[in-house]
Structures
1.
Amino acid sequence: MTKRRILVLAPHTDDGEFGCGGTICRLVAEGDLITYVAFSAAENSLPEAWPPDTLREEVKDATKVLGIHTQDVRLFDYPTRDFPQFRQQILEEMILMKKEIKPDLVLLPSTNDTHQDHQIVSQEGFRAFKTTSMLGYELPWNNLTFRTNFFVCLEDHHINKKIEALHCYRSQQERPYASAEFVKSLAVTRGTQIGVKYAEVFESIRWVLKADTRIDLPC
């Protein structure tokens, strides 16, 4: 079976784990090749007394828990909340990724994410990868609205790995949505919508079935 190339675009370290950590874990287990790209380590958003490289180290630990190889984790240095000033540069970085990685699927923030950095990654991600299948992941605290039209069924060990990965972000544990209770309850809610125990949901931004693409059902 051909391994699919999956590209995860995270505006900041931890966004990918929050939005699609369970799905990443499942894709890794199915043999797919995951490249995780974070555009900012959010140094200026760290709580006081934490070293500036904290999130850089935490994302390495978190993605390792999900099964992503260290060499497949890439970090950029764009300043948090200033992505609109670097729109063209971010687009050019993505175009290079498209040429190098040739992803079969891109996971990125929803088109209705209200955070300015997330909006840029979503909008420029669409421009760069418009010929590729794209799914927008859910971050409920940022989403003005969300189209729940693509579900990925998950099992206990996928959710447990997602929670373990998020616990690697020790500097972010004060956030209410970082709790195991929230992560599991959201997965239960999305699972209930489709009659399974757990699920993650995505906005289907674009779905492309090319001539050589296998057709898989999410469950």
2.
Amino acid sequence: MSIEQADKVVQQLWDEDVTAWQAHWVPVFRIFAHDLVSDAGICPGQLVLDVGTGTGVAAFEAAKCVTPQGFIVGIDHSEPMLTAAKADSRKSGRKSLRFLTMEAEHLLFPDGLFDAVISNCGISYATFHQTIAEVFRVLRKGGIFTFNDWHLKDVPAHRTFSNILQQYRTGNPSRKLRIQRGAIATLERFGNRDMDLNVQVRELRQAGFVNVQVKRRKYTIVLRGIQQYLDMRFTRVALKQELAELSRVRRARLLNELRKELKQFMRNKRFKFDWEVSFVRGKRP
């Protein structure tokens, strides 16, 4: 499977994951977004673009900083995610937000329009090169681009979960599940091997960005318990499919093994685990 094909499959999964994303993942990614916006130095009156906005987590954080005169534009390819973002925007009553359906690698904006561009883990590896070039184009001179990224292998709880799942998942998957597995594995391999942090920094410099800086932050995520973490993982579409294709006995064994191994992350009756995120900042000269 090519990286482009894998990206299309994962995009379809992303479209179906709105409910799970809002319920379980947004609280975590809001923490990341807070530091992302801080690194970008967003201030009142600026015009800011949020690339791969999803349900608008980073856009809402940035909107707190640009008022009263500034404006935030969030773009994403996912209509379901943007529908949720627009609904939240209406509820918030903020007038400084707008969400548009758009591909990150083909930004439909004039050159030099934005004071800052941000992306909260929202840039696909498959189109990273084209997206960075487009971001550079739409930034004004002196504008700041800040994005963040993380890898599964750098999050101990996620790594433990995945290792156990590998042992128990069906060896005779349906065509649907086989395609989903292949797409996710392809993107993970590509990200770990061909699009690591050093490559991303080099891509920024080659695109023309200067003063490229990297910060690595380690967050401690705190959940109520193991079950909340399992809900966080298994409400995602691809993992729901993994469970659905297991026999009742094998599913029970998987869940029992997960609960046993994940006990190592229990501290003071809370499920706690470290999550390392890399933040990259560059300037258009």
3.
Amino acid sequence: MTLRFTLTILIACIFTVNQTSAQDSSFQLKDYKFRTPGVRGLELDINLSGGVLDSKVVNSNDIHYRSFNSNPSLDYFKIISTDKRQHTSNFSLSPSYSSKFNSTDLTGTKTRAANLFGSWRRMDHFFFKKNTFFEIGNEFNTYGNSNRQFGGSIFSNSGRINFQDQLSAGVGKGRLENVQDAQMAMFIVNDLKKMNLLDQDISPEKMNELAMLITGINNRRVFDSRRRRIYELTKVDSFFQANNFVKHSSIAYFTAVNDNWAFAFNPGRQAGTIYYFRVRPSVRWEHSKIEQNNPSSTYKGSDRSFTYGYEPVIGIEKQKPVNLFWQKSMGASLVFVQEWRRFKSEVQNGNNPPQQPFLNDTTRSELFVNAFYAVGYYPSNRTMINVEFNIQTEYMFSNFFDQSQGFAIRPGIIVSASYFVSFRTRLSLYAGASWRYYDPGKVSPTPYVYYSRSALNANINIGFSHILF
């Protein structure tokens, strides 16, 4: 099953062209060119969760459990799109805190954990003739964790911090265009048609002009939401009045435009195809420590590692807006990973003298084949549903732990949805499931090597986000 099956999926995702229905009108989302000297946004996400368990157990101790989790995040993004350059950048900061208490009639354990995740990503495409491009980018991530656990006379304190930076440089052909502003223009016009508020049909040229106007309006950043809304609706109304598309303003006309302006900006919709080759060199530093105390002994441990490597990548991505309501996406990539790692571990037990540090230099060489196919559905101006099928195959020449060869395959499915409950305030749902099969191949003959032959992983998340400006 394995490599032949995976290559079949890869080839299908790259070369299969499915027959699809035409656009809703002569105006094509895929033909819109999103051009902006710079649009910025700031988004706040808040996730809170908790749980309580009180279980009466027959012939054993009763079980008590309670938990609280908080996970806010702040995201800043910037987009620039001109004929010669595409730029995207994103800064994200996400602290989190969790508190748990587990107990029976005899014992109780409290756990407190705090985490901080930060990332900065940017990518620039510089275009030449026939949509060939040179790209350069960077992705920096940092993570910190502090965990305390105590119960009775036992205390444990652990922490971890790491930094990782990955550069990217490559070449390619093609271009992915953002089309969400053209989508908004079509939603506005469609609603006005349904309500018989348009005095004449709007030509594809005028639809494109309306989409460009929306892009220009979104480039203007105003913190006062009241003044911003007045400016935005006035500009859109001026377009319809100046072109004699509506002769008389009415409350129905106003509410149709206002409703779409408030909700019809589902993010991330694109059109186009790109082929690319890139190389991603990276470095990573990690430090973790743990301290445990109980009446009979103490334990202290510290691990440090430094890793550097590179990843050549070749791939394709295709984004196709079938019509206003449907989106199809597909892509595949071939990735080779080569890394070198230096690991150092120090341990001290009780009053014994510290042990000699353990040093280990290892390498990691792996080959990945990835492919995905996704369908997006936009039933209304405030709702987005996306279903993605993906598969990843992995061949390990060596890894950091057992220097083994092996093969793994992981098919999966992801379902995501979002719904605007009010202006710039969105509820989101994410659910995913994947199954991983692993054949270890040649495993070093040691009792300290553990692996899972197969594993099913599933998760679900419900979130809330509000775009500040």
4.
Amino acid sequence: MDSGNPPPPPGREAALHNVVVSAASNIGGVDFASISLRGKDRTLQTIAATDPLADKIDAIQYELREGPCYAAVTGDRLVLVNNVESAGEFPRYGARAAALGVGSQLAIQLVHDGEQAGLNLYARAARAFDRSTVELAELFATQAAALLEYAEQVEQLSEALHTRTDIGTAVGILMERYAIDRNQAFSFLVRNSNVRNVKLRLLAQQVIHGTFESTPDEYRRSQDVRLD
């Protein structure tokens, strides 16, 4: 593993990074690992990896649309290749992966909320994996699938808290600017969000940063109340 990697970003990527690090450290024969994600828009990306080589190997499979990693996020539940170089089902990928030093590979599919992901385990040696490897990998895959759901919920909660804070701050600014009460200020934000087709939090941030432009006349028209 490459211990010199920069720290992963917060959120589910950080949680999944911990899973692949633990998998690579505790499953016999594994030299590096990654998690691939196929989004609802069908794009493929590596969202956690223990080594830059994992990112490179994953990218080759996305490019070729071939390999255990690609198979696991597009259809197959589990793909085990114990001699990548001679893998007849992945002829183009096998040669390129072997040239980069990959001997064995195991990929397990994870599914979450319309997205598909795969836990990818790589070994430099051929015939490095056995039944115990698969059994342990299944445990880590279960953990990764649970983290996908849990981390997404945490991100949604964090986003909601930030949104609430921004809106509250913007409401306070509008109350002071126009000498209005809290309900009027919030109503003003909501109506302008609808009229301008801008998300409420983005509009609130514009108010906070001083980039939101509104005149008293606009306020009167949107609220139908007098400011003087």
